[in-house]
Amino acid sequence: MSGGDAAAPLTSLGPAWPERAAWGTAPSLRAWQAAALRDYLERSPRDFLAVATPGAGKTTFALSVAAELLGRRQVDRIIIVAPTEHLKLQWAEAAAKAGLPIDPTYSAGSGKISSDYVGVAVTYAGVGVNPLALRIRTERFKTLVILDEIHHAGDALTWGEGVREAFEPAARRLALTGTPFRSDINPIPFVTYAPGDDGVPRSVADYTYGYAEALADHVVRPVLFLAYSGEMQWRTRAGDEVAASLGEPLTKDLTAQALRTALDPAGSWMPSVLQAADKRLSEVRRHVPDAGGLVIATDQDSARAYAKLLKAIAGESATVVLSDEKAASKKISEFSASDSRWLVAVRMVSEGVDVPRLAVGVYATTTSTPLFFAQAVGRFVRARTRGEIASVFLPSVPRLLGFASELELQRDHVLGRKVSDDADIFAAEDDLLARAQAGESASADEKAVPFEALGSEARFDHALYDGAAFGHEGEVHVGSDEEMDFLGIPGLLEPAQMKELLQQRQASRSKPRKQAAAPDTVEQVATHEQLAVMRRELNGLVAAWNHRTGQPHGITHAALRKECGGPAAAIANAEQLKARIDRIREWAVRKTS
After folding, report:
1. Are 50 and 205 a contacting pair, CB within 8 Å?
2. 33, 63, 59, 65: which is closest to 46 by C-alpha?
3. What is the rounded distance in angstroms from the CA atom of residue 301 to the CA atom of residue 296?
4. What does the pLDDT profile of the chain (593 residues) look like in tens digits?
5. CA within 13 Å, CB half, 101
6. Pairing between strand 102-103 and 119-123?
């Protein structure tokens, strides 16, 4: 920016861009965006926090605010702070479409920029490196600072301090987030906190637009989760050989080892799941021809191996993104504009990355925190056409199934809350962003632990939709007709139609079994496979209850035994397990109502 010359003021932001808008919203702002904008302009606060589910259109809302403030001459310049280099470019492209030229190449301390620009885009890391330079720029003009995914200001002490120092003099600060805040004793800069009923301070949003509301407005897609379990064999660091079923009740360490075994590209589990996901993608592409898929890998080696498997399965090369660099940004943009089938990313394509055609996902990473899961699923929920369905393939791990069941749960940033359990939904996530951005380097610690996967076998477990589980009795083998009952669901369905179809397909194969039973038989003896399915369902519901209430798993299991009777779940019979499943569902309904 040369001197104090300001660009010509803008009176308003034009209509929302039709190619980016959800069904029923083009060519104007979505209802929530218009309501949030009215609220902002009426109150004109210096600080404003908007919490909106991924895919809802936070970028459009923020640029609408920016255009209005520039047009009213309440600000002269804009600074956009984003988590990653790729998102800086994405913000600049979106702003250009809205008539707001933003320089994404600026780095703190580089001096003046072209007078053609009304602002710059920087990263949180860049702010932390030189906050003083950005403070000087902020002081020189009446500046609006847009803090995208504001929770990252709490991911590193230097980042939070840098954000506070750089932007304290700003005329306006607009904070955005679409994912749950991390737990910390340090407040996030420019976020308001108020004590809750328990006296613990929590973040206070000025405007909230949740997943459930966005789903009702057809702004985001509903998500169908397809869970896969199976038998795993591995050798521990002590040289012991272990065999276990993925999804069965195991210790934390054994669950982690079973998951790593499943994700090993040399085993049978990943090829089977990738083949199932490709079948699902083919079914979706019957109705949505350009639909794409994303595999979220743990490390660089796995990503390359998955891409090789996908080429053999799908008959075309997959795009591989190993880290969030300039070359990766180009690859993501090219994939977004093409009709290629598969993208493979280390850990994840960064939060906020806009690839609207992603419709099928494979969660093939060992990272399992609430924030990471929410960010990952957020890549698939952006709606373009009414009736689109997102499909995400998951390992049948209780923690992940719990996150899937509670997708719509709203979480606030809690200050000073003690983490009492490793499964606590507010468990600290200090290294999460570094791991997501560093990508391939994050796998070094895992590889340092001696571990050898010996073999794996996949089987379809169940589908999760709208908080309910759907599946078939007994083992469902990969490639079977029973599996195709769920993989073959059409790619365009209304939410109510989806639920009805899932119920029909589940019931269609249970009828013959019921008719085959003798009419005077009171109860058939449950098979080992049936018991295993029921235990997994019970454990998934207990995990979901933990994430809703904070009650530890053990206490919930004990309460169910007290109310329903019977021994521990591991040795309970089918009738006892069913009673506990029904009871915990009753609890969930009572709590919701």
Report:
1. yes
2. 65
3. 13
4. 333 434 333 334 443 333 433 333 334 788 999 999 999 999 999 999 999 988 888 999 999 999 999 999 999 999 999 988 888 888 999 999 999 999 999 887 677 778 889 999 999 989 988 899 999 999 999 999 999 988 888 766 678 889 999 999 999 999 998 865 655 556 788 988 888 777 777 788 999 998 878 888 888 888 999 999 999 999 887 778 888 888 787 888 888 899 999 999 999 999 999 999 999 999 999 989 999 999 999 888 999 999 999 999 999 999 998 865 567 778 888 999 999 999 999 865 555 567 889 999 999 999 887 778 888 888 888 888 888 899 999 999 988 988 888 775 544 555 655 544 443 433 333 344 344 334 333 344 444 456 688 889 999 988 988 878 888 877 788 888 899 999 999 888 888 888 888 888 888 776 555 444 444 433 444 466 677 778 878 887 887 787 778 787 777 887 888 888 877 777 778 888 889 988 888 887 776 55
5. 11
6. parallel
Q: To which residue do tokens 């915990």 refer?
A: 584
CA atoms of 576 and 331, how far apart (whole Å): 53
Amino acid in the structure at residue 120: V
SS3 content of the chain, % helix, strand, coil (to 5): 40, 20, 40
| Peptide bond preceding 27 in cis form (omega within 30 of 0) | yes
Nearest to 117 by CA among 204, 5, 244: 5
d(CA 116, CA 129): 26
Contact 305, 65 (CB under 8 A): no
Contacts of 28 (CB under 8 A, 6+ apart): 15, 16, 34
The phi-psi region of residue 431 (left if phi > 0; otherwise alpha if psi is between -120 and 50; otherwise beta) is: alpha
Q: Which residues of 574-589 are buried (b: 16+ CB within 10 A; e: fewer)?
A: bebbbbbbeebeebbe
Helix 58-71 to helix 85-97 angle (10° resolution) is 60
Specify which residues 294 forms β-bridges with. Answer: 343, 361
C-alpha separations of 261 from 233, 255, 361, 432, 453 in Å: 7, 10, 20, 22, 5
E strands, 134-199, where?
143-147, 172-177, 193-195
Coil, strand or helix at 527: coil
Dihedral over Cα of 504, 509, 512, 513: its sign: negative
Within 10 Å of residue 525's Cβ, how many Cβ atoms? 8
